[in-house]
Specification:
Number of domains: 1
Strand content: 25-35%
CATH topology: Aminopeptidase
Structural class: alpha+beta
CATH superfamily: Gcn5-related N-acetyltransferase (GNAT)
Largest sheet: 6 strands, mixed
Helix content: 25-40%
CATH class: Alpha Beta
Shape: globular
Number of helices: 3
Number of strands: 6
Radius of gyration: 16 Å
Length: about 130
């Protein structure tokens, strides 16, 4: 777009506000966290907990912070939470985002549904020990 930096920033802020409001409306009990590195914001992590699953609503990292293991570390943390709750972890990935899909598959997720523009991927925690 032939916009100056101020117009682009205003547009992105508006888009963020709309998306954030939609997530908070759909998942009112979710956790919404900024991802910080050395005190500076580099992304966001939205996680919803329901009776039957933990849903990774969104994980976003600034472009320059990707492919350094931060996303894997964050996802493993959510996996540990899901495992502690004995619930599957579910995420929807844009079909065009093959890098993200490869990451989830490497971490043990499986594709469980094709929803057109998105695929649902699911990770199942190890079975709970007997008597737990």
């Amino acid at each position: 777009m032939p916009w100056d930096a101020q117009q682009k920033a205003a547009f992105l802020e508006t888009q963020f506000d709309y998306q954030d409001a939609a997530y908070r409306g759909s998942y009112p009990d979710a956790s919404f966290a900024a991802v910080l590195l050395r005190g500076e914001p580099i992304g966001r992590l939205y996680v919803a907990h329901t009776a039957g699953e933990v849903r990774l609503v969104e994980i976003t990292l600034a472009e320059g912070e990707r492919n350094h293991g931060i996303g894997s570390w964050l996802i493993r943390g959510v996996m540990a939470t899901a495992a502690a709750q004995h619930k599957p972890l579910v995420v929807h990935v844009d079909v065009a985002n093959q890098g993200a899909k490869r990451l989830y598959l490497r971490l043990g997720f499986s594709v469980t549904a094709d929803a057109g523009l998105y695929e649902e991927l699911r990770w199942l925690p190890p079975p709970a020990p007997a008597g737990a």
